[in-house]
Write a structure and sequence with these properties.
The complex is a heterodimer of chains A (181) and B (217). Chain A has 181 residues and is mainly α. Chain B is built from 5 helices and 9 strands, in the order E-E-H-H-H-H-H-E-E-E-E-E-E-E. In chain B, helix 1 packs parallel to helix 2. Classes of the chains: A mainly alpha (181), B alpha+beta (217). Chains A and B meet through helix 1, helix 2, helix 3, helix 5 and helix 6 of A and helix 1, helix 2 and helix 3 of B.
């Protein structure tokens, strides 16, 4: 992740000092990853955008409660993860209907792009079939590139539990991805 | 075969593959079948790294402009109050003086604007200025605070790399150093006077002479 500009702690201090516009720096810094995370969790880009927008507004309003601004990334992912879980709970199922699967990532007419799009759709379907906790663990570990320590800060789960979830997610995905590559 | 928690079934995968995926084993050491599985899972993860082509920045900023500014909890507000520059004046009866001297000394070392400080008799205002672009914190340690960190922090409110602060100190000569980012001890290049730090490595402390405020014109 490219992290240019002032450190998070400095930006947070500016915001708490009354410079609300500085929150835009944090949005630019973390929005792409949060949107990707929420999209993978919810399987629906519109629902993911709503969850991230609500999470960022909530983060702004409660910014003073962020005990360690140097770990802002974990805090933002935690809020977004909670938002996604609430959204999934409202749907009364952790399954994501295929009809809500995200559009192909690269819908051009070229054969290569089409093949890549089919691969993305295949992986997304396999991911969507996982229980939410395992899906979250796999995405945080392998898509967002977090350490188990950071994942523990995001999810509130213990590291051995997270390792088990990641291992089980890998097993399930591997079985579902025989066609890949 | 083991059952997953949704009633399905899946095969446990080799622990060497799990170790490689956790970064605890070199994937090049895996046998061919496990290496294929490794590549398949890593490829899947790369395919999921695509960032959705959307943004919520405008709606979030519009919403927070309508929101009240974030506020600090009472505890954090108290902490900020203690670190904010302010003038502190105490009138002490002689009987209290000795009992409160230590605590008062700590309070008087809170950095402040020179004009807002109110030194007592046999005290003066010392101002510290240093140019440390890119520093995250700068503090002053010296003979006046037992060379202890955390008592006199300088500020760079406009982020131009110039850190400054002031404190009431007893009149007289003091040795001091800047501590940058909590770990780098630096003599004040603007001090003009220095003394050997006494540790035999040729390092020097900066020297400061505080004159009593009552004696200044």
């Amino acid at each position: 992740m490219v992290n240019e500009g002032p450190p998070d702690g400095e930006v947070v201090a500016r915001i708490l000092g009354g410079d609300g516009e500085a929150f835009g720096i944090l949005i630019r810094r973390y929005e792409p990853g949060l949107l990707r995370f929420a999209t993978r969790m919810l399987g629906n880009p519109d629902a993911a955008a709503d969850a991230v927008a609500e999470s960022l507004v909530r983060a702004y309003r409660h910014l003073a409660q962020c005990r360690d601004p140097s770990r802002l990334r974990s805090w933002l992912y935690r809020i977004t993860g909670n938002r996604c879980r609430s959204h999934l709970a409202r749907r009364h199922t952790s399954d994501i209907p295929l009809s809500e699967a995200p559009p192909l990532a690269d819908p051009s007419d070229s054969w290569v792009a089409l093949e890549r799009g089919e691969q993305v759709a295949l992986v997304e379907r396999a991911l969507a079939a996982l229980p939410a906790e395992k899906r979250e663990a796999f995405v945080l570990k392998h898509v967002e590139g977090m350490s188990y320590e950071e994942m523990a800060a995001v999810t509130g789960a213990r590291i051995p539990t997270l390792k088990m979830r990641v291992h089980r997610a890998r097993e399930a995905l591997l079985a579902a991805l025989e066609e890949l590559v | 075969m083991i059952a997953d928690d949704r009633g399905g079934a899946m095969n446990p995968i080799d622990s060497r593959l799990q170790d490689a995926l956790d970064g605890e084993r070199d994937p090049a050491e895996l046998p061919a079948d496990l290496r294929d599985a490794y590549v398949r899972l890593i490829t899947a993860a790369r395919l999921l790294e695509v960032v959705p082509p959307t943004t919520v920045a405008d709606r979030v900023m519009a919403e927070i402009r309508r929101s009240p500014a974030p506020t600090l909890s009472p505890a954090r507000r108290a902490a900020r109050w203690l670190s904010r520059p302010r003038a502190i004046t105490f009138r002490l009866r002689p009987a209290w003086t000795l009992a409160l001297a230590a605590g008062l000394a700590a309070i008087l070392l809170i950095p402040s604007e020179p004009g807002t400080l109110n030194p007592g008799e046999a005290q003066g205002v010392a101002r510290f200025v240093g140019h440390f672009p890119g520093a995250r914190s700068v503090e002053v340690v010296g003979s006046f605070n037992d060379w202890s960190r955390g008592k006199l922090h300088l500020q760079d409110d406009d982020h131009d790399g110039v850190w400054d602060g002031a404190a009431v100190l007893p009149a007289g000569q003091h040795e001091y150093m800047f501590v940058v980012d909590g770990e780098r001890w630096v003599a004040d290049p603007l001090a003009g006077r220095y003394v050997d730090d006494g540790f035999g490595a040729g390092q020097q402390n900066s020297l400061l002479v505080v004159r009593p405020a009552s004696g200044t014109p």
